[in-house]
Write a structure and sequence with these properties.
This protein is α+β, with helices and mostly antiparallel strands and about 425 residues long. It has three domains: about 15-120, Phosphorylase Kinase, domain 1 (2-Layer Sandwich); about 125-230; about 235-415, Aminoglycoside 3'-phosphotransferase, Chain: A, domain 2 (Alpha-Beta Complex), CATH 3.90.1200. About 30% of the residues lie in helices and about 20% in strands. The strands form four sheets. The protein has a five-stranded antiparallel sheet. Helix 8 packs parallel to helix 12 (about 400-415) and helix 11 runs antiparallel to helix 12 (about 400-415). The longest helix is centred in the C-terminal third of the chain and has 21 residues, at about 375-395. It starts with 12 loop residues before the first helix and ends in a 7-residue tail after the last helix.
């Protein structure tokens, strides 16, 4: 699905579904909570709050992230979570003071609001966001000699943050007695178990020569949930554009035709129960119930696992195209990658025909030696990917989400009824 980008949100969606207790905190509430409970003593005032992330789990919780601009020109990220079942009380003991008088506090609990706030360093699932752990992990993974990093001069930039799920950072390591004296790398932080699975897939991909078209995997500290890869200066296509479909076809063909070990780790997309999301509107429930079941079985090959146009960029130094964001790379149904691209195109531009969205990608995929494509299976997978995009609009509280989901489900039904891909 499309990567993180600014979106207009609709905070009233949970209340519309009968869950007013899971209302997303307003920007004023976040600014006040940060000032009262998380900001260090003497911190500058908050001048602006931008709502950057939302994940609603009906009947369970609402999780959000906000970017706070401060009057001194710096910024900070704050995550917020509300629970239905009172889990915030169980976590209150962890919402303790922090690193000492006047120092940064990482988690806070507001009992009356049933709300937990934290900064990324206080994320209970992403322990690797702690600055000291990042430095130790880089040394432990063999990227630099032990005690080579000047801890106080380590610089980092948080590029992506999904609370309790994953984070992406750029690290600038200042090194003692080394050439070069500064090293820039990319760090990906996940929950511990997930980090181990990703590291296993990345090592296998590296051994097969897959790093000809992906960033080099440098190592990992799976106990801390941290993975490192080479930092690449790249130029990416504008969000929501699909003019690089032929390039996408070539890259996918290269990935999909890598040899597969029969014992290779098989990865599948995250499986969520979408019914509670579509329950927000009876028409959505009826529409999704009328869709055909997905075919079972299917081919197994190396696949990207989260393929969309934002995952392709051209390296500035060499001009070579690269596949980015390998957090779901593994062995599974390779047609999912093709279906994901086509569904994204149809979702971004509903007036585009299936043929127009599919043809440039499939033509170049076939010319580049990609695997055989079962047209009917591809159609059903595209329909399923459209269902996922409808659900995602609701989950992230996107403005107009219900109408967006209706359109996606209608499009999915039309495609599922097709007899073949006409290209």
């Amino acid at each position: 699905m499309s990567g993180l980008r600014p979106r207009e949100r609709d905070a009233a969606l949970p209340a519309r579904a009968g869950e007013p207790r899971l209302a997303a905190p307003g920007v004023e509430e976040i600014a006040r909570g940060f000032r009262e409970a998380l900001a260090p003593e003497g911190a500058p005032f908050v001048t602006r709050v931008e709502w950057t992330y939302a994940r609603w789990k009906p009947g369970v919780s609402i999780t959000c992230a906000y970017a706070l601009a401060l009057e001194d020109g710096t910024s900070v990220v704050v995550a917020a979570k509300r629970y239905v079942d009172g889990k915030d009380r169980l976590l209150a003991a962890r919402a303790a003071a922090g690193d000492g008088p006047g120092g940064p506090r990482r988690r806070a609990w507001f009992e009356d609001a049933q709300l937990v706030l934290w900064t990324p360093a206080g994320d209970r699932e992403l322990a690797g966001l702690d600055e000291r752990k990042l430095a130790r992990a880089a040394e432990g993974a063999g990227l630099v000699p032990v005690r080579a990093i000047r801890r106080r001069r380590l610089e980092r930039a948080l590029l992506r943050y999904k609370p309790e799920r994953r984070a992406v950072l750029r690290l600038d390591l200042c090194l003692r007695d080394a050439e070069p004296d500064r090293l820039r790398i990319l760090a990906r932080v996940h929950p511990r178990e997930r980090a181990g699975e990703i590291a296993e897939s990345r090592r296998a991909l590296r051994e097969l020569g897959g790093e000809e078209f992906v960033p080099a995997f440098l190592g990992a500290d799976t106990e801390a949930g941290i993975l490192f890869e080479a930092w690449l200066e790249v130029d990416a296509a504008a969000p929501g554009t699909f003019g690089h479909a032929r390039e996408a076809g070539r890259l996918l063909a290269s990935l999909h035709r890598l040899p597969v070990d029969p014992e290779a780790l098989r990865t599948e997309s995250e499986v969520d129960d979408l019914a509670p999301l579509f329950a927000i509107d009876p028409a959505l429930e009826r529409a999704v119930a009328g869709l055909p079941a997905l075919p079972t079985g299917g081919p197994y090959a190396w696949r990207h696992g989260d393929f969309h146009p934002d995952q392709i960029a051209r390296e500035r130094r060499t001009g070579r195209p690269r596949l980015l964001d390998l957090d779901r790379v593994g062995v599974g149904d390779p047609l999912r990658d093709l279906a994901s691209w086509i569904a994204d195109h149809l979702d971004e531009d509903p007036g585009t025909s299936f043929e127009a969205a599919a043809f440039p990608l499939l033509e170049c995929y076939e010319e580049s030696g990609g695997l055989e494509v079962d047209p009917r299976r591809l159609e059903l997978l595209v329909a399923d990917e459209l269902v996922l995009r409808g659900a995602a609009a609701i989950r992230r509280l996107q403005a107009g989400a219900v109408e967006h989901a209706r359109r996606a489900l209608e499009h999915a039904r039309e495609i599922a009824r097709r007899g073949r891909v006409r290209a």
